[in-house]
């Protein structure tokens, strides 16, 4: 295999909580000759990874700086509060931020929610990561508000979570460095994420047009016109008789031509 035949790889970054498995599976089905490498990167670092060229595209949490990065919003996550299973909040299906007024609310340094005003009691310090904040909640100290995917990622048997209806939400997007034109492999992945089919006009692997079958139309014409042609060649003057003089078909009784009983047509009727 020469150097030009070595398949190019596609590098996909993703932040914690995002599960790219569905899109990776479709990629592997459509482009089995192009390896896809996954890179898990923190929300704070993912944009830098894209700008440096260490990844071709990535799943990020908005907002991102659009001056040098393109982004397609994909979905908005539900926001939840993580609490111990025996916490009073666990008795409700949904809560509001007012229900957290008397709680210490941890805000880790990697928090992805854009709070205008943090509810609850201010913590004495900010944990470095969401994982560190989860440990504090498990120890019975304070609560944590995060996107639901992060609550699932850091699931523990002694913890649960409930929806916070009026909390900020986190939006997940596909992002890539701006370039003209967009690289082919990035365009391929954009198409997969947007749900384009494999035969899309913007896809790389399009089904080639099928060549027209030769000889089909003449043969069909011969079949469709054969009966008429045979009738034209086998009848004499269109009288319904063949060239040999035999009748070409039975004529209805009482017809103008008289058919096979034409000899009786000249017999006078007997008057009563």
Q: What descriptors fit this protein?
A:
five-stranded mixed sheet; alpha/beta; 272 residues
Provide an overview of this structure.
The chain is of the alpha/beta class. The protein is 22% helix and 19% strand. The chain is built from six helices and ten strands. The strands form two sheets. Strands 2-1-3-10-4 form a five-stranded mixed β-sheet. A five-stranded mixed β-sheet has the order 6-9-5-8-7. The protein is elongated and about 55 Å long. It starts with 9 loop residues before the first strand and ends in a 38-residue tail after the last helix.
Number of helices: 6
Spatial order of the strands in the main sheet? 2-1-3-10-4
Radius of gyration, in Å, reads 39 Å
Mean pLDDT: 81
Helical amount among residues, as a percent range? 10-25%
**Main beta sheet strand tally, sense and closure:** 5 strands, mixed
Distance between the termini: 109 Å
Number of strands: 10
Beta content: 15-25%
Global shape: elongated
Could you name the ranges where pLDDT drops below 50 across 5 or more consecutive residues? Answer: 1-6, 215-266
| Helix-strand string | EHEHEEEEEHEHEEHH
The helix/strand class is: alpha/beta
